[in-house]
Specification:
Family: Belongs to the ABC transporter superfamily.
CATH topology: Rossmann fold
Distance between the termini: 22 Å
Keywords: Amino-acid transport, ATP-binding, Nucleotide-binding, Transport
CATH architecture: 3-Layer(aba) Sandwich
Organism: Skermanella cutis
Shape: globular
Number of helices: 6
Number of strands: 10
Radius of gyration: 16 Å
Largest sheet: 6 strands, mixed
Strand content: 25-35%
Order of helices and strands: EEEHEEEHHHHEHEEE
Domain ABC transporter: 2-218
Pfam family, one: ABC_tran
Number of domains: 1
Helix content: 25-40%
């Protein structure tokens, strides 16, 4: 589903990714693990098209992302939950969840919304609240719901547990765990493995933008 091969990314003359590579197959849950500043967010932003690789290839379901404009990548079934949540404060919870479906012709927004509410009923209960009135943890839940609304093939979750109260962190973990084994490929970036290590089929260690040791779960 996802194939990253030898990707180099330069940000303001600083090399942020140095030949990094990873793969994620349908049904797999992959950990992207590294310290702060190691390149985890850079990798996810590059997949989403916010940054452009100067070398290497990224393919999603066989499609070379160099041929896909940033605003068309949701059409490939990629859902993205950024570390900073990226919600629109003046929109309601429901509007934030639906937002990517409005520009993705292949999706039925109402059907995807029902899917999200089925997995995360707490979002339905707060659907009419403005995003700016939510706590940080609640905003993380909404950002996950928005990613699920459009992420039918690949889900990218950047530090989903960072800065979240323990109860909400546990709830996020439950929701993500429920996705395991489906056709969806899930990539989760983490610096702290306390919440998610048991979820992963495989972990890619990233160190200063390059591949460290890969860890695969024993079966």
């Amino acid at each position: 589903m996802l194939a990253v091969d030898g990707v180099h990314v330069v940000i303001q003359s600083v090399t942020a990714l140095r030949g990094f590579g990873m793969t994620a197959a349908p049904g797999e849950m992959i950990g992207l693990v590294g310290r702060n500043g190691a390149g985890k967010t850079t990798m996810m932003r590059t997949i989403m098209g916010h940054l452009a690789p100067v070398q290497g290839h990224i393919r999603v379901d066989g499609t070379d992302l160099r041929t896909v404009a940033r605003h068309h990548r949701a059409d490939l079934g990629i859902g993205y939950m950024p570390e900073d949540r990226g919600l629109i404060p003046a929109l309601t919870v429901e509007e934030n969840i639906l937002l990517p479906t409005w520009v993705t012709k292949r999706l039925d927004g109402r059907q995807r919304l029902d899917f999200v509410y089925g997995i995360m009923p707490e979002l339905k209960a707060m659907r009419e609240r403005k995003a700016l009135l939510l706590s940080g943890g609640q905003q993380k839940m909404v950002a996950l719901g928005r990613a699920l609304a459009v992420g039918t093939r690949l889900l990218l979750l950047d530090e989903p547990f960072e800065g979240v109260a323990p109860a909400l962190s546990q709830r996020l973990s439950e929701v993500i765990s429920a996705l395991k084994g489906k056709d969806l490929a899930v990539v989760i970036s983490q610096s702290d493995l306390n919440h998610s290590q048991s979820l992963f089929d495989r972990e890619y260690i990233i160190e200063r933008g390059a591949n460290g040791t890969m860890r695969e779960k024993a079966h």
